[in-house]
Write a structure and sequence with these properties.
By secondary structure, the chain is mostly beta strands. Helix content is about 0%, strand content about 50%. It has one domain: Jelly Rolls, CATH 2.60.120.1110. The radius of gyration is 16 Å and the shape is globular.
């Protein structure tokens, strides 16, 4: 379980059937290098993706100094993910590397669908302080005090 902050959320159950950018843009307030912290992007498939063929999706983290993203720089990418992998509950952590062009103010995700379109699928993506084990289990009858 993660506690989500609406100001750090790129997509909240966003339907992605063709190439699209995240519903929300993160505004750091001033040009800021996010890579120096323990922040990562948590990408969670809410609803399984389907496609008529062998579609793939690539998710890129983009930065820019202007909210219009006229000169967006891709600073991190997932690489192509096959539609068969994008099942409900599938989670990706995307680390934020340093941007060689220097710190930027605005951040968004770009979802690129190839060999598509997708016929269904939703994603929630947000910044989290650090990755954590979503499969961590506690023994029966254990308690957190």
């Amino acid at each position: 379980m993660a506690i989500l902050d609406s100001l750090c959320t790129f997509s909240l159950a966003q339907a992605v059937t063709t190439t699209a950018v995240s519903t929300n843009v993160f505004d750091a307030g001033v040009a800021r290098e996010l890579a120096v912290s323990d922040i990562e992007i948590l990408i969670d498939v809410d609803t399984a993706f389907t496609a008529a063929g062998s579609a793939t999706m690539t998710i890129d983290l983009q930065e820019d100094s202007a909210v219009g993203f006229g000169t967006a720089t891709v600073v991190a990418t997932t690489g192509a993910i096959p539609v068969a992998t994008l099942v409900a509950g599938y989670v990706i952590f995307l680390s934020i590397p340093r941007n060689p062009a220097g710190p930027r103010r605005y951040y968004r995700l770009n979802y690129t669908v190839a060999t598509g379109p997708m016929t269904a699928g939703k994603i929630t993506s947000t910044m989290v302080l650090e990755s954590f084990d979503l499969t961590q289990k506690y023994p029966a009858n254990s308690a957190i005090l």
